[in-house]
Design goal:
This protein is of the alpha+beta class. The chain has helices at 3-19, 85-92; strands at residues 25-27, 31-37, 53-62, 67-77, 99-104, 125-131. It has two helices and six strands; from the N terminus they run αββββαββ. Strand 3 (53-62) and strand 4 form a beta hairpin. The longest helix has 17 residues, at 3-19.
Length: 132
């Protein structure tokens, strides 16, 4: 993995988000995301901080639409997780109750190793997340 590959991935991510018509924000590491369902401001909508436990409903696809996996109850502690760094970055930029979709560069996903049988090495990922 090198800087040229990262630049190429970020160009692909930018092009895809535009061609898909997403209204996006770019967050740490080059993740592009779009808020789909934003929680109303009320006592249950709070920011996530390092050390907080988050619960997600998540669907992970490759950029070509191939489904990798869906989890109705992914739980992790931000800053202590074994989840990819992109998951934590999304959690920190999303309020509890929000739904977002994001395109994640490979190094912020499952990297150069992937997940055997589920995610190929170096895969760009599309996440659809509901955060609780």
């Amino acid at each position: 993995y090198n800087a040229a590959r990262l630049i190429a991935e970020l160009d692909i991510i930018d092009s895809l988000s535009i061609s898909w018509g997403w209204t996006t924000e770019v967050i740490s590491g080059g993740i592009v995301y779009e808020k789909l369902d934003i929680s109303n401001v009320h006592e249950n909508s709070s920011s996530v901080l390092e050390g907080d436990t988050v619960h997600w409903n998540v669907r992970v696809n490759l950029i070509n639409g191939v489904k990798c996996f869906t989890l109705d109850s992914l739980q992790f502690i931000v800053g202590q997780a074994i989840q990819p760094s992109g998951f934590e970055t999304i959690a920190l930029n999303t309020l509890r109750g929000d739904s977002v979709r994001a395109i994640v560069p490979s190094l912020m996903g499952y990297g150069t190793k992937g997940v055997p049988g589920k995610i190929p090495p170096g895969a760009l990922l599309v996440l659809n997340v509901r955060q609780f």
